[in-house]
Design a protein that fits this description.
Helix content: 55-70%
Number of strands: 4
Low-confidence stretches: none
CATH architecture of the largest domain: Up-down Bundle
Domain Adenylosuccinate lyase C-terminal: 369-448
Largest sheet: 2 strands, antiparallel
CATH superfamily of the largest domain: Fumarase/aspartase (Central domain)
Distance between the termini: 53 Å
Structural class: mainly alpha
Number of helices: 19
Mean pLDDT: 92
GO cellular component, one term: cytosol
CATH topology of the largest domain: Fumarase C, Chain A, domain 2
Organism: Amycolatopsis endophytica
Keywords: Lyase
Radius of gyration: 30 Å
Protein name: Adenylosuccinate lyase
């Protein structure tokens, strides 16, 4: 039987990868894609040198025509990388050999990290574009849910206990606003992260002479990247920031999944992840409708939570070059992108097919009767008694209602101070959950308007 390459990571597993990874983003970080990104940088460098008359233009064209990773034997290249213990020298040698007489201009004056750093930036840009598109999909789904359930009252919970009424649309609008901020972060970090690297041996560009800064600018322009103010060989804050933002996006997806999982509990049953006949919850209990999709999202979010620690550690580099942490970035950044993309895909799928049970929501809203409206009573009594005394009065009544099973209204009316301040009819009007939703609807509208404005601005810019 032919040997099969082991799946060292879930994202590479043919059996389990579809539960965790974004296949589209994974394609950005294949070996061939990585080698091609390095070749693209080498080509941009030699074309910039041709622009400045350092390299003959015909030779630059020859090198560019030879820089196609699809035509290279990656197995042979991997063997050479292992033999030389160097990630780039075998690539340089192969490109030079394929370029014939023009090969002498390959990698002229650059250092390895110039190529690998800029190559990783090119991969990050492609992955960023895909991640932003997936985040917009999630935003679109949250927008629909916030609008659809804008006015559906439900119980709000604090400390995992019933608190005050909100609306289901308000809950989704909170998540929508968070997702919108993530999209802003992805946009804002691009100028800081998507920059070229060309510093030479120690970042001073000494090998390029006085043309160095202009050469960097032209190389960056060929790649449609920004030009940094100074070399960043050991300044890794850009990749660290990117990883932190990706992990924040993943955490939001995990929060969405956890909320669905908790609200799907049998004794709550307010919402449920998508279900179709054929989806199996248990191999031994056929009745189970387990939140499996939500649970895979949660486990995925746990994995990405570790990424910032590694990348922040990788910022601690020595002097003007430190290869000890290159492997950290080469491992963590692709993994975080791939897992975050998978999280976004699955969180959107969770919400796209979300099952809402309005009757269960209403039942739970009224589970405590009027007891959950203790704040309403307190604020009303504060007009006559002051906040401190009103809190104590309502607290005593609420605790009595808890113990006796009576309504809050009846317990309140046992107190002569309450009877002096209000009457049963007013309490009946006040202690209605559906009438104590605060500004939920206007907050939903505000978030929806902000999201729509951002979308319109993007559309006009496109």
């Amino acid at each position: 039987m032919a040997s099969e390459a082991p799946a060292a990571h879930l994202t590479d597993s043919r059996a389990l990868g579809s539960l965790f990874a974004s296949a589209e983003i994974r394609d950005v970080f294949t070996d061939r894609a990585m080698i091609q990104s390095w070749l693209d940088v080498e080509v941009a460098l030699v074309r910039a040198q041709a622009d400045l008359g350092i390299v003959p233009a015909d030779d630059a064209d020859t090198i560019a025509a030879s820089a196609l990773a699809t035509e290279w034997d990656l197995n042979a290249l991997a063997t050479e990388i292992g033999r030389t213990a160097h990630p780039l020298v075998p690539v340089i040698r192969e490109l030079a050999a394929r370029s014939g007489d023009a090969g002498g201009w390959v990698h002229y004056g650059a250092t390895t990290q110039d190529i690998t750093d800029t190559g990783l930036v090119l991969q990050a840009r492609a992955a960023l574009d895909l991640t932003a598109a997936l985040l917009r999909d999630l935003i679109g789904t949250l927008t629909g849910l916030a609008r659809r359930h804008r006015d559906l009252p439900m119980i709000g919970r604090t400390h995992a206990q019933h608190a005050l009424p909100i609306t289901l649309g308000f809950k989704f609008a909170v998540l929508l606003a968070e997702a919108e901020r993530h999209l802003q972060r992805l946009t804002q970090l691009r100028p800081r992260v998507l920059v070229a690297e060309l510093g030479g041996a120690v970042g001073s560009m000494a090998s390029f002479g006085p043309q160095g800064p202009e050469l960097l600018h032209r190389m960056a322009r060929h790649l449609d990247l920004g030009t940094p103010d100074i070399a960043w060989h050991t300044a890794r804050d850009g990749f660290a920031e990117l990883t932190c933002v990706l992990s924040m996006i993943s955490a939001t997806c995990g929060k969405i999944a956890n909320e669905i999982r908790v609200l799907q509990r049998t004794e709550v049953a307010e919402i449920e992840e998508p279900f179709v006949l054929g989806k199996v919850g248990s191999s031994t209990m056929p009745h189970k409708r387990n939140p499996m999709l939500a649970e895979f999202v949660l486990s995925n979010a746990i994995l990405t939570r570790q990424s910032p620690a590694a990348m922040l550690t990788a910022m601690l580099q020595e002097h003007e070059r430190d290869m000890t942490v290159w492997g950290v970035e080469w491992s963590v950044l692709p993994e975080t992108f791939i897992l975050t993309g998978g999280l976004l895909e699955r969180a959107t799928r969770l919400l796209d097919g979300l099952i809402v049970h309005p009757e269960a929501i209403r039942r739970n809203l009224h589970r405590l009767g009027d007891l959950m409206l203790s704040e309403v009573a307190m604020m009303r009594l504060a007009n006559e008694l002051g906040k401190t005394e009103a809190h104590e009065v309502v607290y005593q009544a609420a605790m009595a209602a808890w113990e006796s099973g009576r309504s809050l209204k009846d317990a309140l009316l046992d107190d002569e101070r309450v009877r002096a301040a209000t009457d049963p009819a007013e309490l009946d009007r006040l202690l209605v959950p559906e009438s104590y939703l605060g500004s939920c609807a206007s907050f939903v509208d505000q978030v929806l308007a902000g999201s729509a404005a951002r979308q319109a601005e993007e559309d006009s810019g496109a």
